[in-house]
Write a structure and sequence with these properties.
Two copies of one chain form a homodimer. Chain A is an alpha/beta fold. Chain A contains twelve helices and five strands. In chain A, helix 9 links the parallel strand 1 and strand 2. The longest helix of chain A has about 35 residues. At the A-B interface, helix 1, helix 2, helix 3, helix 7 and helix 8 of A face helix 3, helix 7, helix 8, helix 9 and helix 11 of B. Chain A binds a DNA duplex through helix 2 and helix 5.
DNA sequence: TCGGCCATGAAACATTTGTTGCATGAATTG
DNA sequence: CAATTCATGCAACAAATGTTTCATGGCCGA
């Protein structure tokens, strides 16, 4: 039936893993986690480090369709070969069609977005972070695709300022929150073309209340950037594809959170540790080592 | 007799090269030019390909101060080992002070993240997009900070496949959705260290149901990558700061959506236009020109 | 409970590995 | 020109590698 794409030996391994005997699973996980050593060191070495029988490696290789460990290792080695940064790295850019057109699209996109990031002005971010640091409370608003940026910012800031950060509209209609803005609070609005009415309303309300308004957008002339105390610009259209890029906005959000955190000093650090301890106690996370 | 900086075995080799016998020079150049093969293939293999005597490799190693080829190879292997953290981890960490410390932090972060993007493997994204294209329905899961990535993906995919894309847990407890996975559907799980139990459960449920599992994570050995048909890797730790970076995950999500859209052809385009028309009619957006 | 199956570890196996001794021939020196 | 040094290829060596076989013990179905 639907042959799963077995582009790399590692993915073959991963796919077969769950249906393997216990010992082979252990060994398989070890290989997946240490694929560099798998290609460079000897089978017996790996066995010793993994605390397993050397034979298990041979059996693992055979279990996923290779003639033996040597062949598996050869496949891994080829997959890791650097000259083929991506198998089509030759920039295959000329070939807009054919089977590799998709890969070329992805590469284009990633490169374009990578190029856009260093062009983001850093100074305004640092200044905005200071404003956040001074704010009694922080409101965050973003709609449609920008919602994800708003939520990330909300999540990260709440890690060390849980009681003072809030998403606009998180607990009821936006309109209720709009009336709650105070002059000593900060409001962050994320948005780019086409701009939603909702985000513009939030910005206007913030301005009216005398709150510090921080706009994360793609243009200085964006409607919600009007009257903003800080405007953090990114290039939404910098990458090919059917939809504007949010990579820059995410990078800004994370930098903003990082600087705000560092401004928070030991107090922020302490609260972050508390939050982490609580999450660990609730066993939200999988324990690090199996 | 100023010992030249012998940071890497390769530089030692290059430095000693000119004073070596002719044959050893040839072999040395071959090693320098093919250092990847030097670490992975056998001495005799290399000798055959270089058209030289196997003994020459042993002699070369001894000539530049190693006890033998094995030791040289070990040094090369260690030099090539991909750093567990990141090339930037040691950098700029020296607590810059002064008024511009924050700005420097932002710049570091942006640069590091920009450097990480082109390292994202493109091929798996294209393959995963094809799987999405073929899926009858698409489920998306992500928790904590990864929720924002999941929601962005959900939003963009729903623009042109509104009825077939759904967030896990969007309309009730996760558990209800977990039982709804079908073999002809695709499940996307976003997560990185520390991994949440919830995301692992989703991945396991997807695997059990025979659905196509796509994992967006920071490691091939992530628990929810086990049994995954496609694993899309990004570097969560590639940037300084208190929190892992989501920029790579966002870039992957957007590329995935873009390729899936392009695979959808005119049908997808048509549906996107419909969606846009509806949003405009509801006057969600501010009209372009004032 | 018995019988077969499979997973697993230990040991024996043939092969391949890196190394070294030796013979040859060219280059260097007195 | 003779004596010496040195670079080089070949072949034999011991060590290490990956593989296979076999004995053991647990598990499931009859």
């Amino acid at each position: 039936m639907a042959e799963p794409a077995k582009s790399s030996p590692l993915s073959e391994l991963r796919i077969a893993l769950p249906s393997l005997p216990m010992r082979l699973q252990e060994v398989g996980r070890f290989v997946a986690a240490n694929d560099y050593d798998a290609t460079t060191r000897s089978m017996r070495d790996l066995a010793a480090e993994a605390g397993a029988d050397p034979a298990a490696f041979t059996r693992l290789a055979k279990a996923i369709g290779y003639s033996g460990w040597d062949e598996l290792r050869a496949a891994l080695t080829e997959a890791r070969r650097p000259s083929q940064t991506s198998p089509f790295s030759g920039r295959a850019r000329s070939r807009r069609h054919g089977p590799n057109a998709d890969v070329a699209l992805v590469i284009d996109k990633l490169e374009a977005e990578a190029a856009g990031l260093p062009r983001i002005p850093a100074q305004p971010i640092a200044e905005a972070a200071r404003a956040l640091h001074d704010a009694k409370r922080i409101w965050i608003a973003g709609y449609r695709s920008c919602r994800s940026v708003a939520e990330l910012l909300n999540y990260e800031l709440r890690l060390f300022r849980p009681e003072q950060v809030q998403l606009v509209g998180a607990s009821g209609p936006d309109d209720l929150d709009l009336g709650a803005f105070r002059h000593d609070e900060a409001v962050i609005v994320v948005g780019f073309l086409p701009y939603t009415h909702a985000s513009v309303r939030v910005a206007q309300a913030a301005h009216r209340a005398g709150a510090t308004l921080i706009a994360i957008s793609d243009s200085l002339s964006a409607p919600m950037a009007e009257g903003a105390d800080h405007v953090l610009l990114f290039e939404a259209a910098s990458s090919p594809g059917f939809f504007p890029s949010l990579t820059g906005a995410i990078a800004i959000a994370q930098s903003l959170a990082a600087v705000t955190f560092s401004l928070g000093g030991v107090a922020a650090k302490k609260r972050l540790e508390n939050t982490e301890a609580r999450l660990t106690a609730a066993s939200t996370y999988v324990s690090e080592k199996g």
